[in-house]
Amino acid sequence: MQENRLLTVSEIRECEQFTMQKHKLTSVQLMEHAGKACAESLFFGDILDFSGQNVYFYVGTGNNGGDGVVMAIHFVEDSFSSHNVYVVVCAPEKARYSEEMQYQLKRWQKIEKKNETAHTIYYSTDNHPNPTREDVIVDALFGIGLNKPVTGFFADVIGHINESDARVVSIDTPSGLFADQHTPDNSAVVIADTTLSVQFPKVAFLVPENACYCGQVDVVDIGMEAPDNLNDMGRYLLVSEAMSQLVRPRPRYAHKGTFGHGLLVAGCERMPGAAVLAAKAAMRGGIGKLTVHTVKSVCQTLAIALPEALHHPDDNEQYVSRIDWNSLPDNITAVALGPGLGTHKQTVSAMKDILDTVKSPLVIDADALNMLAENKTWLAFLPPCSILTPHFAEFERLVGKSSDDFDRLDRAKQFAQRYSVILVLKGHHTVVTLPDGRQFFNTTGNSGMATAGSGDVLTGLLLSLLAQGYTPEHAALLGVFLHGAAGDAYARDNDSRTLIASDIPQYFPEAFEELRGLQDWETKEDSKRAEGLMLSKEERSEP
Q1: From residue 387, how far is each of 288, 323, 336, 396, 468 by CA, in Å?
Q2: Is 227 helix (H, G, I), strand (E, B) or coil?
Q3: In whole angstroms, what is the distance from residue 464 CA to residue 470 CA?
Q4: Extents of the domains making up the chain
């Protein structure tokens, strides 16, 4: 599977050096590639409206400032527009300029003498521009190399930018923001409307604490390459091209036994909806058969809401109290538990019985996670590669409070490695942490999915994929991606704020179809299997 890597600052520096060595480029030439690509992305994007607005490039004294000057040069020299272009040099007294920045400034000064649309302003508290709502500010003060909080002179510059009504575009990262670690609370940070990230996205763009700074993030390809032996940090983006290769073909002569039999333990008298939502998602996810163990009243609701599901009623009328394994079908291929269960002491006992009985990977969500949090010694008995799906509060109950979002990521990694589980930390960019410590950030989903029951739907989909024979790792990655993609498919047809959890499974077909359209089978055997022309011996046998 091909992943989009999320690199640390030091790793990106390795890529810069590798690219320059491989293509025999100087640092000035690489800067030229970056500046030109960002200028084109800005000009041909949807930020400039060609109405004669001014464009202000706020540049620092380092190489990020050099990128900004190169952009300004291309705006003028390539006749991108008739905009007035200002290079606002932001340098405190006795500041040291990088060699590359000095070189670009000299180029700019020559252009300024020949072109009446080119201007230079040296920023001070008494001498600075005042961009209006119609103008655009390009923030090129600091890049990814920032290693201390922004205070003093540059904090004043950033405050000036943030107080402006102009559109703000940050180059590589909003100035003041740390690219791969928590940004200190006392650091001034540019609040960008758009961030043009050079070559690679940054982890900082994907955590909630930085949501107000980055705006829309566009990754600009400048031709930078990573060496084959790059020892990256083990963080990746989930992208459609990679996820499409995980979707298994559906053999033409398959039967319901081909696609597994899942057991869902969910619901109680006062929370029947969670079981219904999870069950519907499991069926829409392609499972062959589904049995739901729940209380009798929920079974009655299921009979109406989802007649396709099998029922296994609990002896108790109000909550799940025990599971009679002898009366269950013997062909169960996956088990999920948690949605709407409640935490009655008999339900807690039933969960312990599940942990003692089931040796294959489980899907554990909601109240089942809360029971684990109250009985942490049970964590050691989880079947390897079980999939746990906490939201932030549930995760905090499991591992304790995190000091910031990067600390939470580290804790997730430590937890997954310690207990050999797959941790799905739910959020806008849901993070899937595998037992080997690799972390995958989801790129699908929208704010409409922040609604009651959305997590229950994810649990059902994960159960469905696991029952069908997907590995736990692939089930977690694909399930998270498809879940978000279905929410996005809904949002293409409707206002996302109107989404409710039961809408999500209705868009699973569209989410699956989008991935199938991207599949690239490499062999004839793959192609035949994709068309359902070949079946294994096991697939040909009846259940």
Answers
A1: 20, 21, 9, 17, 15
A2: coil
A3: 9
A4: 4-237, 240-531
CATH architecture for the domain at 4-237: 3-Layer(aba) Sandwich (3.40)
Segment among 143-157, 213-227, 422-436, 518-532 with least mean pLDDT: 518-532
Which homologous superfamily is 240-531 in? Answer: Ribokinase (3.40.1190.20)
Report pLDDT for 538.
Answer: 45
Residue 46 contacts by C-beta under 8 Å, 6 or more apart in sequence? Answer: none
| Chain centre to alpha carbon of residue 467 | 25
DSSP string, 242-265: HHHTTPPP--TT--GGGG-EEEEE
Is the sign of the CA dihedral 471, 205, 500, 512 positive or negative? Answer: negative
Could you give the CA distance from residue 365 to residue 436 in angstroms, rounded to a whole number?
21
Q: Using CA atoms, how far apart are residues 280 and 454, in angstroms rounded to an integer?
A: 12
Percent of the chain with pLDDT over 70: 93
In angstroms, how far apart are the furthest CA atoms of the chain? 88
Phi, psi of 436, deg, nearest 5: -85, 5
Confidence of residue 79 (pLDDT cuts 50, 70, 90): low
Q: Which residues touch 493 (CB under 8 Å, ≥6 apart)?
A: none
